[in-house]
Amino acid sequence: MRARERHAAVGLATLLTTAGALHFAVPRCFDAIVPGWVPGSPRSWTLVSGAVELGVAAAVAVPRTRRLGGLAAAGLFAAVFPANVQMAIDWRHRSPRERAIAYGRLPLQVPLVLWALRVRRDAL
């Protein structure tokens, strides 16, 4: 694997590890964006999604499981999109800076999915 491809995989694993750890470190932030139509408690979804992010990070980090991890990361980024939509709806009356953060997360999912699929494609 070339250095560029390895760097992309390590970067993706790092992003997922950080996001997953944050679900446990500051769960209230994530609880708040769980859509109300999702069954169960927001905290349960926060903890489950954090654990999934950590598991996907591990799969991306290990060369033997990187192809599967890249695909799982792409699916995960798509699956959390409703939470980003919920955040944008909930934050529509906040300050311009906070609205920019919330709205900026929406199109960010596209390059994240593409990054994950590139990691999958480049894995040996």
TrEMBL record:
<keyword id="KW-1133">Transmembrane helix</keyword>
<feature type="transmembrane region" description="Helical">
    <location>
        <begin position="45"/>
        <end position="62"/>
    </location>
</feature>
<keyword id="KW-0812">Transmembrane</keyword>
<protein>
    <recommendedName>
        <fullName>DoxX-like protein</fullName>
    </recommendedName>
</protein>
<keyword id="KW-0472">Membrane</keyword>
<feature type="transmembrane region" description="Helical">
    <location>
        <begin position="69"/>
        <end position="89"/>
    </location>
</feature>
